[in-house]
Amino acid sequence: MASTWSTGGACESWWPNGGYAPVGCGGIGEQLAPGSDLTPAPNGAFVGSRGTVKDCTCFNVGRDVDNLRKAIVGLGTNEQAIIEILTHRSNWQRQQICKEYKGTCGRELIDDLKGDLSGDFKHVITALVLPPALFDAQELERAMRGPGTNESVLIEILATRSNQQIKEIKEAYRSEYKRELAKDIAAETSGDFRRGLLILLEARRDENCQVVDERLFKSDAQALYKAGEKRLGTDEAKFIEVLCLRSPAQLLTTFDEYKAITNKTIEDSIKSEMSGDLKDLMLTMVNCSKSTSVYFAERIHKSVKGLGTDENTLSRIMVSRSEIDLLDIQDEYLKLYGRSLYATIKDETSGDYKNTLLKLCGTGN
Q1: Which of 188, 95, 97 is nearest to 135 (CA)?
Q2: pLDDT in tens, 274-291
Q3: Computed from CA positions of residues 40, 331, 361, 364, in that sequence, does the dihedral angle turn out positive or negative?
Q4: Which of 307, 300, 238, 303 is nearest to 269 (CA)?
Q5: Are the C-beta atoms of residues 305 and 262 closer than 8 Å to each other?
Q6: Strands 46-47 and 39-40
Q7: 106 by DSSP, 3-state: which?
Q8: pLDDT of residue 7
């Protein structure tokens, strides 16, 4: 029998406080780690304690619907009212607003918002009112639409969502586009990169963050050594199998064992043995097993540095992590770059779009 031991919270960097990764999806699953700070929301979602957006304690769905309708109808749009309401309600509360709006006004709130708003402001506001699984599905479809594919979006979403979330994303994609997500990804990608994404789409990743299997991490470390550093060429399939199917806690011990065997970090080996999109996917799996907060902080920084801003990536991360761990992401951003995320957003964006993101930040500190 394999030797095992408790991780003592080793997966906190991946799933907040050892719980299943939430990202706001409804029906995320039934399990929670003992002592977890994740709590089930009324729609089955899990809400982390390190998010910036919480349930509004004075939530009145009828009043919110009335105020939103007033902000939309007539000449001009009251963008500030829309921002104030939607950035101070949880996703579950926003879904209640959408339902009540349809019943009261006979119209879809998201359609009215799309008709009145434009540009990046429209994108982030509509992201807030969508169910999270549908938002992820739409982002994946957008990444594959037209000539070329935005592989970094495929990696970001599929590498950071839990098994249950991926199942719900696939269902939302099927319902929205009448197509299978796996078939579309298979058509838009190729080779070992495609293999890695399709394995993640199978939603078979080990999510047991409480126990590490000693025999398995030793055999995995040896297998990775034989698949890369010990041979001419690389057995990419072995790297994909280990990095895409093992739990974060299991991977962390595997990486330590790998370094003891090879005197190289797993990151250095991946960089020397692989290239292109597969290298990016494998490095993301490694980085997220260590800290998703650092990963997202780095993604945000890349989206705003240099000439121009990748508003789609910035919006997606700010919305998807706002109820989970955006406070942790802000902490890591400050450590990495010496300035607050709030200050960066204030400098790099403008107008109502900027005001929305600053509200999601929750603080200027």
Answers
A1: 95
A2: 999 999 999 999 999 999
A3: positive
A4: 238
A5: no
A6: antiparallel
A7: coil
A8: 52
**Class (C level, CATH) for 133-201:** mainly alpha
The closest alpha carbon to 317, from 360, 350, 346, 282, belongs to 360
Q: Computed over its alpha carbons, how large is the radius of gyration of the chain?
A: 21
d(CA 333, CA 43): 31
Q: Architecture of domain 294-361 in CATH?
A: Orthogonal Bundle (1.10)
Rounded CA separation 166/168 (Å): 5
Name the residue with tokens 């790998």. Answer: 258
Mean pLDDT estimate for the chain: 88
Query: pLDDT tens digits, residue range 80-109?
Result: 999 999 999 999 999 999 999 999 999 999
Superfamily of domain 212-290: Annexin (1.10.220.10)
For the beta carbon of residue 68, count every other beta carbon within 10 angstroms: 24
Give the model's confidence band at 330: pLDDT under 50 very low, under 70 low, under 90 confident, else very high.
very high
Q: What letter represents residue 241's amino acid?
A: E
**Where exactly are the structural domains of the chain?**
133-201, 212-290, 294-361
Q: What is the token pair recorded at 194? A: 């495609």
Q: What's the token pair of residue 91? A: 């996703």
pLDDT digits (tens, 9 = 90+) for 211-256: 899 999 999 999 999 998 776 668 999 999 999 999 999 999 999 9
Structure tokens at 346: 């204030």
CA–CA dist 290, 302 (Å, integer): 19
The length of the chain in residues reads: 365
Is the predicted pLDDT of residue 40 greater than 80, yes or no? Answer: no
What would the two tokens of residue 37 be? 């700070």
Give which of 175, 206, 162, 109 is closest to 320, Cα–Cα: 162
Nearest to 195 by CA among 179, 181, 182: 182
Secondary structure E strands in the chain: 4-6, 39-40, 46-47, 211-213
H or E segment to which residue 244 belongs: helix 236-245
